[in-house]
Design a protein that fits this description.
Layout: E1 16-27, E2 30-42, E3 47-51, H1 58-65, E4 73-78, E5 81-82, H2 88-97, E6 99-102, H3 116-122, H4 131-144, H5 160-172, E7 178-182, H6 190-207, E8 210-214, H7 218-223, E9 226-231, E10 234-240, E11 243-246, H8 258-261, E12 270-275, E13 278-283, H9 292-296
Parallel strand pairs: 3-8, 3-9, 6-7, 7-8
Antiparallel strand pairs: 1-2, 1-4, 4-5, 9-10, 10-11, 12-13
Helix pairs in contact: 3-4, 3-5, 5-6
The structure holds adenosine-5'-diphosphate and magnesium ion.
Length: about 300
């Protein structure tokens, strides 16, 4: 794209902060706990891929960040504002001006009777750009994601994959400071997904847009600086350039990343050993010193392979 939009406003930094975030859906007796205490910080300009199995609470997190729902407990701050206290109108204003949102169901992001280019023009309404600049920006975005040929088709008549790409263009149209995107490449072939990833990267590099993207797509994970895994309503593993980070939960629990689960499968008895800069975990049945009976106490029976001294 030839032009980058001007930064419209300079308010607080485009960061995300949450502390002990809990989300319970439903009514007493019929409750679903979607988030069980999420602690997460995203710095200005950072690109974070949110991974995790279906039902882990990823979309719930995105709705909380976008101010579409209010948390049951805990703190959520976005762009320096406490989303717990913000009104629906203020949240809508934030989404219009500084927080771009791509919802998991792409159709929900679009005006179905408006043309593709009309959607991208409308998204720029809060900017002070001239009509000509808006049209240039809209055409540039549609070109970049391969939608130039359907620019005048109503959004509601585009295919699922086309709607998904259009939703990304709409979310980026006015140069948001923070982009929240929920599985933005799930319906795309490799080539279209690559175009979307390029567009996200360009927004981050040119404008410093902070990005938080839910994805199952390894290509998105690779293009981003950091990955955070959500599992069962909590932050599980964190990774950065080949490293794995674990978060120790408030109750002292940790969740191992998948590749380490190959070393310590669920149900393994492990020995925690204090080492100079932390704690090492050893398989108690394989580390030579593994005396399972001693670890399990005097009443336990000898497990298969275990030996009494
Ligand atoms: N509006 C809702 N009412 C009740 N339960 C919900 C609602 N939205 C999501 N859930 C439940 O919350 C949990 C997390 O859902 P979600 O955030 O969509 O996870 P993910 O995006 O990781 O698949 C799931 O068990 C889901 O069924
Ligand atoms: Mg989801």
């Amino acid at each position: 794209m030839s032009e980058t939009p001007e930064r419209e406003r300079a308010t607080a930094t485009a960061t995300v902060h949450c502390d002990g975030l809990v989300q319970v859906y439903g009514t007493p007796g019929l409750e679903v706990t979607a988030l069980r205490g999420v602690d997460l910080d995203v710095a200005e300009g950072e690109t974070v891929a949110l991974l995790g199995p279906s039902g882990a609470g990823k979309s719930t997190l995105m709705w909380l960040f976008a101010g579409l729902i209010k948390p049951t407990a805990g703190v959520v701050e976005v762009c320096g504002r406490r989303m717990n206290d913000i009104s629906g109108r203020q949240a809508a204003k934030m989404r219009l001006r500084e927080v771009g949102m791509v919802m998991q169901n792409p159709g929900r992001n679009l005006l179905p009777y408006e043309s593709a280019i009309g959607n991208v023009l409308f998204a720029q309404s809060p900017t002070r750009r001239t009509p000509k600049a808006k049209r240039r920006r809209a055409a540039g975005l549609l070109e970049a994601i391969g939608l130039a040929s359907v620019a005048h088709r109503p959004a509601g008549r585009l295919s699922g994959g086309e709607q998904q790409r259009l939703a990304v263009a709409v979310a980026l149209a006015n140069g948001p400071r923070l982009l929240l995107a929920d599985e933005p490449t799930s319906q795309l072939d490799l080539r279209s997904a690559a175009a979307v990833i390029d567009l996200l990267r360009a927004a981050n590099e040119d404008l410093g847009t902070t990005m938080l993207v839910v994805t199952h797509d390894p290509a998105v994970g690779k293009a981003f600086q950091r990955t955070v895994t959500i599992r069962d309503g909590r932050v599980g593993a964190e990774g950065r350039a080949g490293e794995e980070f674990l978060v120790v939960g408030k109750d002292g629990s940790i969740q191992l990343p998948t590749d380490l689960l190959e070393v310590l499968p669920p149900g393994t008895l492990a020995r925690a050993v204090r080492i100079p800069d932390g704690v090492a975990l050893h398989r108690a049945d394989m580390d030579g010193s593994g005396d399972l009976d001693a670890l399990r106490g005097p009443d336990s029976t000898s497990p298969a392979g275990g030996q009494r001294p």
